[in-house]
Predict the structure.
Amino acid sequence: MLLVLRDMYVGDSPNKLLTFQRPQIPKQTAGLPNPHHLLEELLSHPAVRKLLGWITVPGRDGKCFFERLCENYDRDWRLATWLIDALWIKRAGLDKEHMKFKLFHHPPTVRALALTARSIARYGLTTPQRFAAPLFVVWNFTQACNLSCEHCYQNARHKPDADELSLDEKLYLIDQLADNFVPFLAIAGGEPLVHKDLFPVLEHAHRRGIHLTLATNGTLLKPETAARLKQVGVKYVEVSIDSLDPAQHDAFRGQKGAWARSVQGIKNSVAAGIRTGLATCFTRHTVHTVDDVVKFAIDLGCQTFSHFNFIPVGRGRDIMEADLTPSQREILMRRLTHHLQQGHINVISTAPQFGRSCVVYGWQDGVFATGHAGRGEGRKTMVLSRYIGGCGAGRCYCSVQPNGDITPCVYMSSEKVGNIRQATLAEIWNNRLFHVLADREDRGDHCGVCDYRNYCGGCRARALAYTGDVTAGDPGCSFNYHLWNELSEAVRSDFVILDNLAAEAVARANGRLRGAAAQVAGGRR
């Protein structure tokens, strides 16, 4: 493990550290706004916590009172419906029909609310919120993949490992998720579409009321495959495109023609009526194309643009020099925030700094990120993002490896905390490492004193990859610039030169790539 040469951070004031960084942050937003909501006081009351615990105890049928209440809203339980309408719906100015179908009669949302209520009952209202089970699970379904991507965090190969979960074990895992109120499951890889067990697992998860998303390289996403994904309940498909230059993408993915097949896969998903996202992991070679890539996603009909933070793990360790500098990442976050505020496409990012960027650079009543995949409008969302925003590894999110190992994040495969073959999800979730990850006061460097730590917290996977310590500062953040500068010369390479050119590179228009992208997407205009 390559270690960072650094001293422990000393000082109790961010101002001592950030004097030379202040020009990057607008003066009018240097002081952190701290909005509150009356609901915070209500949920913190001991009597309310007891009530939340009571209504989320599973019954004999596995459902809790809260789930049955939502199922019967505006149906059989007239008194309960009247109370909800009088005390909440009307007071908040909400639309009853919208709430009925988007909330009370939507199993994943009901499951998420039940899990949140159970978590507050157990831990209290904490910043950030500690959860009694994961809100979101990413399952690396198989080690097999039909490509050989340079940055693959999973170090996937062309065939599955011998110890991967059997179909029965996979179905048991789905039952574990459902029984613990886990609302959202993302299937990733390797490449999940190469595995014969994928569709039986998706069908079972859909029957159990879990919201399903699929991450794929898109090369195998034929029209009939997209139609079947839609049929078995997949709500969102995300396809990775690393560059607008087909040759550059193909070289990065290790297969000629991959770019064209991936773009066609996006079109097939859109045509099937599935909510579709284009995902990109920017490196120092491609970060200047961010605006063009977002426009390309819009032109293809994608509803979401997803940015994947570069983490030097797996095969990504072999291309560490391609990592963004802190200033490059700051500029990237600012551009992504701009596109999110514009509203032409939803924008999400696995970089926890995106939450902080929305607070600093976003509009006062604009759109705020509430986590890696969440968003909302207005200051109420800003309040929510303090509780569920930023890095969720081991706190509201975990990953499952192909052999059943549970890790806090897909980028932290070395940190195994259990295996579903030997223990239940509930038993595994309650472990020391996850408690450490949920405590943002236990952080080194600037992450430990940052005014924005409840919105961000720093990427724990990057801290681990660069320092060997999950509680260290995130060297990718501008506020930890001193930490980045102390990286060994072997890792830094020519990053200092690149950093000085970052602003100029992002601002520079890339006419050739824009023209190529427009030509490919032209069928939609």
Notes: The chain has 24 helices and twelve strands. The chain has two domains: 38-123, 136-500. Residues 340 and 479 are 23 Å apart (CA to CA). Confidence is low (pLDDT under 50) at residues 1-31, 492-521.
